[in-house]
Amino acid sequence: MFKISILLFCVLGVLCLTQEEADEPGEDDTKDDLSVLECPPFLLKNATPLSPCICHEGLDDDAIFIECNGLLAPKQLKQITMKLGRRRIDALEIKESNLPHLIRQLLGGNAIETIFMRNNSINSVDPTAFAGSENLAQRIDLSANNIQDFKFEMFNQFSELTVLNLGENKLTKITSAGQIQNLHVLYLYMNKIETIEPGAFNLLEGLEYLDLRWNDLKQLPLGALTVPSPRWQLRIRNNELPTLEGAFQGGVVPFLVEASYNSITQLKEEVYRPVLEGAMTEGAQLYLEGNLLQCDCDVAWLVTNITLRRFVDNAVCSGSMSNIQDLMPEEFETCQGFEPTTESV
Ligand SMILES: *[C@@H]1O[C@H](CO)[C@@H](O)[C@H](O)[C@H]1NC(C)=O
Ligand SMILES: *[C@@H]1O[C@H](CO)[C@@H](O)[C@H](O)[C@H]1NC(C)=O
């Protein structure tokens, strides 16, 4: 009930904003002072009872955290961020707001370290929306919105950005994930991604974790998952991929691949041996649950290598439904090119 009455007040035009402005004539004093780590007085709790944004101090030593609830439009947020006077903010969290377009300079040029904007009906993001945070933003969460098209290049100058979450949006195609120098974690889970262009990730030199779970991938062109970083993992479960063949071409093979619930039927040695060798080195696994594998002579290379096959999780054969780990290597000895190994005794 309380929340509803706040919303109603703000619906009556910019009333709540103009009131704040009147309260706070000296706002320009902090212009460009990125060392100030104090809440602006106009956003302190109880300063303006109707403000959708409230600033909290002292969570950490010098930390300031701004929380906004129920913003009615992007312009309303921009009016507030402009008033902050280009300040350094540790975290900004926006909830239950209507921000269909993240407009130009939305964050008012302030430098913000962590930006949470989950579930605010965002459709589009202007490339300058986050300007001002280039040297500070470490984590940006835009998950659970309606973004269909995203220009990753907008973050190319964001030297500290390590985690970008675009999960639970409506992306259908990844042409290029930009050149975000320090990006370690990229979440793209639960979108509608059908297409990834060759080399889409090949400028993300720091990438360690790529999450493409729950998308609509039916095929991957050569080099679609070429990643230059020396050590990375791929989460790609719940797509409809028949194979990962050629996907890593020219890049580094991930040491952990979670490919459960795809449409993989064949485990070709040249595709999956490098993955398993990486898993073995790192103590990771290749996850294959929910794929129906053909356990014919094509998997002899795996079945007969007891050491290697331990690094496959839940690889189940169609028909017999037996786990590859339980197959008898002896039964594959007649496959061409396979000699009985002492290991199998
Ligand atoms: C998303 O936000 C709406 C209101 O803006 C709310 O009703 C809904 O519960 C939120 N969903 C999640 C998953 O947080
Ligand atoms: C099993 O595979 C590993 C990794 O490729 C290899 O080093 C080892 O020699 C193989 N063992 C046999 C018995 O083929």
Describe the structure in your own words:
There is one protein chain. The protein is built from six helices and 18 strands. Strand 1 (53-57) and strand 2 (64-69) form a beta hairpin. 15% of the residues lie in helices and 17% in strands. It is elongated and about 80 Å long. The protein folds into two domains: 2-240, Leucine-rich repeat, LRR (right-handed beta-alpha superhelix) (Alpha-Beta Horseshoe); 264-345, no CATH class. By secondary structure, the protein is an alpha/beta fold. The protein has helices spanning 2-11, 15-23, 74-83, 269-282, 300-303, 306-309, and strands at residues 53-57, 64-69, 88-95, 101-102, 111-116, 124-125, 139-141, 163-165, 173-174, 185-187, 195-196, 209-211, 233-235, 256-258, 286-287, 292-293, 312-313, 316-317. The strands form four sheets. The protein has a twelve-stranded mixed beta sheet with strand order 1-2-3-5-7-8-10-12-13-14-15-17. A two-stranded parallel ribbon has the order 4-6. Strands 9-11 form a two-stranded parallel ribbon. The termini are far apart. It binds 2-acetamido-2-deoxy-beta-D-glucopyranose (NAG) (2 copies). Residues 273, 277, 305, 307-308, 341, 343 line the site of one 2-acetamido-2-deoxy-beta-D-glucopyranose (NAG).
